[in-house]
Specification:
265 residues, two-stranded antiparallel ribbon, mainly alpha, 65% helix
Length: 265
């Protein structure tokens, strides 16, 4: 069994430890998110994503433990398990990320279609209106595509600007329901931006950022697998054995002559 280069082993352990730290943080974040949304009704729609996050945090963490053990103890079977696992995981993430990037435009297009089906708001159901009002309060927006104009006369209080609004505000029209109980001419400020474009844009940006992060992790996994393969190659390399030179003088005890002849070989 050959000797492993010290710099190569240290580089491998550093990269593998970085993957372990990222996996541990991802696992902690997944546990926190699972616990935070456990009591909410939306947890049913998030279970698939949560399970995927558990897999992509626990599996690499297990592999890194195996890989570091294999490098420190120079166990080839542990290094082989690590290399195969990381190669398969990185290939799967590469393929999934490239495929997901092609689906982002389709998702945004479908979201736009769903928002258009909400119009006109005067004919929308109470559940749709309640969800829209919650969205307006959370995202600091008003209406669907045309701002407060989508509400017509009945502009809800969810469109009222907060004390520190994230998005710009405009003065509400005087002939809206917001001025029914107004006793002075103080202007009422409401959010200017419609909700649908903001949410669709944010979903698209978030999806692309997620895919870029996934590709970066896959590249890191592939790098660790390459370093692991390099270590395996060095372990399988046979050490150079000095050539044995036979000399008649050695049999007679003339070892100096044997040493001289060995220098010329």
């Amino acid at each position: 069994m050959g000797k492993v280069n010290v710099c190569l082993k240290r580089s491998y352990i550093i990269v593998t430890s970085l993957i372990a730290i990222i996996s541990a943080l991802l696992l902690a974040l997944t546990l926190f998110g699972h616990g935070y949304h456990y009591e909410h009704d939306e947890i049913e729609n998030m279970l698939v994503g949560i399970r995927v996050m558990y897999f992509f945090s626990i599996f690499p963490l297990f592999l890194t433990i195996m890989g570091v053990y294999g490098a420190c103890a120079e166990k080839q079977w542990a290094l082989i398990v690590f290399a195969v696992g990381m190669i398969l995981s990185s290939l799967f993430v590469f393929a999934s990320s490239i495929r997901a990037l092609t689906f982002v435009p389709l998702v945004t297009k479908e979201m736009k279609k769903q928002y258009l089906e909400m119009l006109p708001l005067a004919n929308a159901s109470d559940s749709i209106l309640d969800n829209l009002k919650e969205t307006e309060t959370e995202w600091h927006c008003c209406g669907v595509f045309q701002g407060y104009l989508d509400w017509g006369y009945n502009i809800p209080e969810s469109c009222l600007c907060a004390e520190e609004p994230v998005n710009p505000c405009v003065e509400a029209p005087r002939n809206s329901s917001l001025f029914e109980h107004s006793v002075d001419d103080t202007p009422i400020m409401i959010y200017k931006e419609p909700c649908a474009p903001l949410i669709i844009q944010m979903v698209g940006i978030t999806g692309k950022i997620t895919m870029v992060i996934a590709l970066g992790l896959a590249l890191l996994w592939a790098l660790s697998a390459a370093l692991c393969i390099a270590i395996l190659c060095q372990l399988n390399r046979k050490e150079d054995v000095p050539a044995v030179v036979y000399s008649a003088e050695a049999k007679a005890g003339n070892y100096s002559a044997l040493a001289d002849s060995a220098e010329y070989t």
